[in-house]
Model the fold of this input.
Amino acid sequence: MERTTNSGPYDVVVVGAGAAGLACAGDLCAEGLRVALLEAGDAVGGRMRTDRVAGFTADRGFQVFNTSYPQVKRRIDLKALRLRPFTPGVLVHTEDGPRRFTDPSRRPKESRDLLPGRLASGRDLLALSALSARDALAPASVLRRGTDGTTRDALAAAGVSPRLVETFFRPFLSGVFLEDRLETSARFFHLVWRSMLRGTLCLPAAGIGAVPVQLASRLPQGLLRTETPVAALTPGGVALADGSEVPARAVVVATGQRVAAELLPGLRVPDGRTVTTVYHAAARPPSEEPVLVVDSRRRFLNTCVLTAVQPGFSTDGRALVSTSVLGSPGAADTAILLRALGEVYGAETADWELVHRVTVTDALPAMPGPTPLSRTARWAPGRYVCGDHRATGSLQGALASGARAARTVLDDLRSGAV
Done:
C-alpha cells in the first residue's frame, strides 16, 4: 500500500484511481495543487486491470486499445506499451462461411468479400462508403452535434439494409456497446465508427492494465493511496472506512457509477452493461491470424486468439482464446459456447482448457439514444464527479471526463467558489 507523507489539508481529494481519476489527479497536480488520490482496490485501473492466471495474461474482460483517441494521444506513451495490432477489420461467421469485413483502403487485397453479392449488396456498399467517408472526414465536433437517436436509426438513415445490419452491424456492435438491440446513441456510434476508421486496435504487451499503470507512474510520489476505501463525503473532506478523515477543500468522485451514486446521494447514473469473458487454453491455435471474429447468429459477442496478437500472453506455448458473451452465462451455456467456437474456428475444442472466467458488472454505462455525450462535473459546491458514466463508455470518455472535472475544480478554486 502506498501512503502519502503529507497530512493535509489537501486542495483536492480524488476518489478512485481508474482512468478518469488518474487523468483528473494528474491535471490537478500539473497546476501545482496538493492532491490525494484514494483507491479502494489494491492497484490502479478500475475496470482496466490485467491478471496473471495459470501462466497466461488475461485482462479483466476482453478489451482493446484504440490509438486514435485524442486523450490517448495526449497522455500515453504508445511506444512504451509495446503495442501489437489486430488485423484491420473483422471476420464474420455466416451461414455461407466466413466473410471478411475490412477497410479496403488499408488492405485492398483482402477486401474481396466486399464485392457486391457476398457480404453486402451494391447498394449497401454505396451506403457504407458514404457513411464511412462522412464519419472519417468530419470533425468530431460535427458528429457530436448531430441529431441523436439509436444506432439502428442511424444505420437506416444511412441507407444500410436490414440484411447487412443483421449480418454484420448487429453482431459486431453488440460487442462494442455490450447490448444487442442497437439502441445505443447514434451520435456515439458515429464517433466510435470514426475512431475505428482512423485508428488501430491493439493490445499492450503487458495487457490493458499497463495503460493506467503508465498514467499512475507519472504522478508525484506519495500522492496515491491504494487499499483506502472512502466511506462517505464529509463537510470538510472524506471519511475513510477505517474511521479517519482526509480533509480537503474539494472532492472529486471518480468511481464507477454505483459507488458514485452511494457517495453522492441523489446522483442519477445510467444502468450498466454486464459482460462475461471466458479464456480457454488450446494446445494448437485455432487460428494464426490476430483477427476479431463475430458470429452472425450472435451466439457470442466476439472471440479471438489473444496469443496471435500478443504471443507473450502465454508462457507455455499454448494458445489463449478469449470469448465474450452478454450477461453471466451458466455452465450449460459455456458448454454450448464451446461447441459454437468449434464450428466457427473449424477446430476440435473438446480438449480446450478453461483457464479463466471474468464477469464484469457495469463494464460499460448504458447509452440508449438519445442521450447526452457529456454531463457536468460540478455536483455541489466543492463536490465533483467524473467517469465514463458522465461522458461516453470508452477510454476516451473516461479520460476526457477526468480532464473536464479537473478544469472545473481549478476554475472554482481560482474564482473563490470553493
User: Anything to note?
Assistant: The chain is about 30% helix and 25% strand. The radius of gyration is 22 Å.
